[in-house]
Every structure is written in structure tokens, then in C-alpha cells.
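User: two proteins, same treatment. go.

Assistant:
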Amino acid sequence: MLRLAAGVEQPTLTRSIRLALLFVGLCLIAWLVWRADPHVVARMILRLGWRFGLVVIVYTCYVIVRAAALQRTVIGVRPRFSDVLRIRLSAEAVEWLTFTGPFLSEPAQGWLLTERGVSPFAAFAAVVTEYLLYSASSSILAIPAMALLLSRYAIGEMRTAAALIVLLMTTYLCALAFASISGIGLIAPSLRRLAVVFGRRAERAATQFEPIEHLVIVFLHERRRRLAEVMALEAAAQLVLILELWIIMAALTLSRSLIDAATIEGGVKFVAAVFVLVPGQVGASETVYAWLARAIGLSAAAGVSFALVRRLRGFVVAIAALVVLAAEKGPRRAGSA
């Protein structure tokens, strides 16, 4: 039952499709780099120099802030922050090194929380709550960014897509606000309605997810102070990402405008949701970064460079997390022996 709630099990067909999408994404990255000129992209990335270390440090701060948010969403026995930080670092390693994105990294956090004494339903409810609130903060950033693109920049054929993204994210925020104010869950009832089409599978999923959603609603509806704390932390996480992108843009001497950095950061927020089946959003992220860079007056090569630098720093943080976690496990095992 918990495996279903965590979403860990994936059909073979889904894995095959994701592998195919990963291959297509890698080909798309190669095409984007070739079209933008590999020498130009390489020069831009190398121009970052020592500031790449600063980018890694800033992203690590983002991971720490998300860990603090996750700790505060746990109802009942709250684990130590150091343990939650290790869990968050483990999730980063899973997300970046397996190309599975939230499909595996988010459930992994739930499993690891249960090992820290949190009850299974409370663990997965905490992960779901943190992810929902992070998505809410992403939407709050993305809506004005898309509105700015629509009003100030010539985005041509992408106007309809940008307007649709604003509509979908506004709908998401309204649904989350409704659940928080009314104390009524929306996911389990929606799954039950899908039972008409998908039969017992949807009904079973609704029944098994209902206890988790109940705890999510309890947090949103009854824990108002902690809800405000988590939203503040998620907002801080978004600001850290804007700062990171600003450092990259300034280091490449492309733009020193925080508004440009916030516009691009807000503009890429929909990628994870729209291209959720694409492993690691490989190719999709690079394409959107290139489009957004051109929309604000930069080159497509700049956008591809932004995406590749961020992908590289993600791998560096993930590998560093694995090394740190492995080094900590060694002495613990020796001590227990």
C-alpha cells in the first residue's frame, strides 16, 4: 500500500517510454548546442570559472532551506534537522543521478523519514505537503514572470502557451487555497471520480491515498502558523534560485538585472509539471531556457549555457552528497560492530 502511495513501482512500459524520452532529450540537447555553436556555449560555461563554486554553494543553501521546510511539515514526531537534511541530500542524489526526478526522489524522502521514527502516513503526508507548497511558491513566482513576458517582450507564437500556463497555475493556487480554507481534500475525491473510467485501480488508489491527504489537509487547515513558516521558507528557496541564476548571468557578463533573472527563473517553473514524464526534463529544460533567453533579448546559446551550468552543479551537489553520506555511514557501522 505504501509503495502505491509513494509511486515507486512503475510499469515496464512506462520505464521504456522514459528511456526513449531520455534518449530524445539528449539528442535535443546536442542539437541545441550545435545550433547555438558549441564553441560559444563552451566559452560561456568556462567563463564562469571560480564562480561555479559559488553557484554550488548557493544551490546547497537552497537544499538546506527545502530541508527546513520539510521538517516543519511533519505532523507528530518531528525528526532532527540534521536527519532531515541528510534525507534531502539523499533525495537530491536520487533525482540528479537517476534522472527520475520527483518520481523517485520524493517517495524516497518518505521512506527515509519512516526510518527516523515518523509514522508512514505522516512521513508521506509531510513530503506531499512540502511538495505542494513548494509548487505553490513556484506558481506565485511563475505567474508574474509569464505576465511580464506577455506584456513586455515579443514572444510571438508562445503567447497562447504562456497564457495557458498562467491560467493553470492560477487554478492550482485557487485549488490549494480552497483546500486550506475549507479543510476539504480534492485529490482522493478526484481519483474516485476517475473510477468511472479506470475502474477499481482508481478507487483503490483513492482509498489508499485518503489517509495521507487527510494529514495534508490537517496541516493546511489547522496548522496555520507552521503553514506560514513553510511558505516563508519556500519563498526563500525561490529567492536563492533567483540569486543563483543572477550569479551565472552576471559571471557571463550577459545581464546584471535581477528582474531578468527572476523572469527566467519564473518562466522555467512549469517545465517540471508539463514534462514530468521526461527523465530529469532532459532537453525540455534546455529548450525552455533557450526560448526565455531569446525572449528577454539574450542569445539562445546563453539560455542553453544557463541550463547546462545548472545541470552540472546539480550533479556536483548530488555526488558530494553521496560522498558525505557514505563517509558518515562508515563510522556508524564500525561503531555498531
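Protein 2:
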Amino acid sequence: MTRLPNRMRTPIFGVLMAFSISCMLSGIFTFYALGLKLETVPVWLGNLATAFCIAVPVAVMVRPIAQWVANSVTKPPSAD
């Protein structure tokens, strides 16, 4: 199986994280607002689509900054 180049790691990670987080949060907030009804699933899927479109660019842009901050406040692996 051919693997993607390393430069694709950040965008792939961002998309996967954005999808999982937006899926969970939109589901929780939709269920909280509507309860468990028949129309909850279509409303949740619409909310998921909106949340995902917002979350992907944010996750891809924020990940390198968060990584830099985490690296700045922790010791390098060889220093432990």
C-alpha cells in the first residue's frame, strides 16, 4: 500500500480531529436541544455539516500553533 508524503500529516490529522470533534459536539448539542425524537438525526446531520466546515480550517491552522506552544513549555524527548 502506498503511503502519503509526510507533508500531508497536518492536514489529515486536522480533518480527522475536526470530524470526530464536530460529530460528537453537534450530536450532544442537537440531542440537548431537541431530545430523542425522530427528527433529531436529520437536524444533527445538518449541524454536523456546518460544524465540520468550520472545524476543518480551524483545526488545520491551530494544530501547528498548539504543537509549537506544547513544545515550548515541555522538555525535548531526549531531556527526560
